[in-house]
Amino acid sequence: MAKNTICLWFNKDAEDAARFYAATFPDSTVGAVIRAPGDYPDGQQGDVLVVEFTVAGVPCIGLNGGPAFKHSEAFSFQIATEDQEETDRYWNAIVGNGGQESECGWCKDRWGLSWQITPRVLSEALSAGGDQAKRAFDAMMTMRKIDVAAIEAARRG
């Protein structure tokens, strides 16, 4: 286990989420699946309690802690994409599997975790500053899934 690991609270389906992430994103795996050694407030002995997994190289733990806490946009995974094809692939995997679209490249998966599917061209335009950053930002503000060609066009002016 890594020294610093992100712990994500799930109701009862941390293993399903971890397996979905591992199947969707490169450099993602499912490690140990730890079962409860005894009954606990929201589960029974033998239920999946903790799942160790990696999402795009980031070590995580999924804790099946019950319904007490929900995910919010205060935490999100940001996935940098190289082109429209990669952007579409991740966006469609998340939204098409019971997730939902949001704005400006954000979406939620079916477990309520937020994702930013961010083409590098957008990050580069915003980092450049000046007029091209403003044009790219204004274009992004009208989008749900990021349109790479529209960002490139806005960047050029």
Automatic annotation (TrEMBL):
GO terms, molecular function: methyltransferase activity
InterPro entries cross-referenced by the UniProt entry: 3_dmu_93_MTrfase (IPR009725), Glyas_Bleomycin-R_OHBP_Dase (IPR029068), PhnB-like (IPR028973)
Keyword terms: Methyltransferase, Transferase, Ubiquinone
Cited Gene3D superfamilies: 2,3-Dihydroxybiphenyl 1,2-Dioxygenase, domain 1
One BP annotation, GO: methylation
Boundaries of every PhnB-like domain copy: 3-118
PANTHER family (alphabetical): PHNB-LIKE DOMAIN-CONTAINING PROTEIN (PTHR33990:SF2), PROTEIN YJDN-RELATED (PTHR33990)
The protein's name: Glyoxalase superfamily enzyme, possibly 3-demethylubiquinone-9 3-methyltransferase
